[in-house]
Amino acid sequence: xxxxxxxxNDEDLVWSWTKEEDDAVMGRLAVVHxxxxxxxxxxxxxxxxxxxxxxxKSSEPIVIDGPFAETKEQLLGFYVIEVENLDAALDVAxxxxxxxxxxxxxxxxxxxxxxxxxVPDKRVxxxxxxxxxxx
Amino acid sequence: MTxxxxxxxxxxxxxxxxxxxxxxxxxxxxxxxxxxxEAALRALKNWVANxxxxxxxxxxxxxxxxxxxxxxxxxxxxTDLPPEELISDxxxxxxxxxxxxxxxxxxxxxxxxxxxxxxxxxxxxxxIALALRIISGxxxxxxxxxxxxxxxxxxxxxxxxxxxxxxxxxxxxxxxPAERAERVGVVAAMIYLxxxxxxxxxxxxxxxxxxxxxxxxxxxxxxLFQTEPEIMGLTALMLLQHARLPARxxxxxxxxxxxxxxxxxxxxxxxxxxxxxxxxAIRHNRPxxxxxxxxxxxxxxxAGRAEDTDWAGIDALYAALERLxxxxxxxxxxxxxxxxxxxxxxxxxxxxxxxxRLSGYFHYFxxxxxxxxxxxxxxxxxxxxxxxxxxANTPAEAAHIRRHLDRLxxxx
Lengths: 135, 412
Prior knowledge:
The complex is a heterodimer. Chain A is of the alpha+beta class. Chain A has one domain: Dimeric alpha+beta barrel (Alpha-Beta Plaits, 2-Layer Sandwich). Chain A has helices at about 10-15, 20-35, 85-100, and strands at about 1-10, 40-45, 55, 60-65, 75-80, 105-110. In chain B, helix 1 runs antiparallel to helix 2 (about 30-50). The interface of A and B includes residues 50, 68, 132 and 133 of A.
């Protein structure tokens, strides 16, 4: 069964981590990722919501800044995992929690999954600046 | 077990909101600060034992407020009761708890805190010191070290700032739209000054940390003004400049020029966020100085190699900045781009009228010397480089010009 684990946390807090704190968390998560092996599908960490843009699909679609949800916690990333059942998915979420406390993980069964057709290799992709785009 | 590092960053992260709320209750910076310190101490004990609370900020506000109230009550036994208006809105615990949890005060609390630290009556140096002490929670020792002054002098600077804020009778209501826009401009200027303190500090880590604090404050401001393109621009500008930090200095701590930096060492995550923000800002079609400077930084970030830089684009952006914010220094910067696009003679013509106003400015003679070299006017270039060395503000600046002179000597 495919599950999405949606990662919620206070982005003000997460984005004020020092590089050392950030590296420490990412290091601990890397150990968990390694342990999950074949269960682990694609995963992403998102830039803060202040960098986000929303397209409201009204009859005349409009582009607005942000999501402006006045909530304490924001969607900061997600995992896709393949495990037998909810218990196993929760077990994965517990392991991630031990490596990265604070906030919440939302475990959602996936209804439709379109595999990545873009990259044939398995490199970790960190956001790169596009080659050239004059503002 | 709860990670101590996590607790620490949770306390730091919650600080602006918690101090802002405590300031709303007690209307006094010192009381709010002491209440927060007390709550943070208790958090260190309590959270380790019981695990972190769901909402660290709400926890710190509640515990801090109760601690401060206990203190006020103790003092009241010895002295007269505090004036009624000081504690009048403290009674209805149930409703105020509900208020805090829905976070509806968040925006006003944090904004008030920023406005108080950036009170227009305060000189910029005091604004920065106060913001670092109150909002960022840096110790007086840390701030003193970052600004290369003694601890006693920094303590005094902060005390003076607090006294001036108290004397100014800061209104605790959020100001109206016109005043608000003006005050936000002052906050933005304080943040950028703070950033430049850190940026110009070379590879001194204590001073360099000021850049991180400035970016943190900018993110805070951006959360309050998510549709304000100039705040997006300011944040983007600092992210894009800070992204170059790993490439800006060699092993000996000497500065490396932008065109000589190893661009693979630039921080790609900061660049991605900076580019996302400037892209968003430009869609608003309300250009401003921070956005234009960010767009210039973005143009550099988008060039994979120095020789790929879109100098014509940078020249046009500087021209726009000149129109918006005319200054000889902007024109001098533009001349560097102009030299790449239209040649050194054009650049020399552009900066000729600036000589009188920039006669004491190191970069003027450094840049003009470089243009003169490109024109083959070596004797004049040497004279300019000599003047630049005499005007250099740091040994690193002087050393950089000396390398130019050495190169001339070798090729002669």
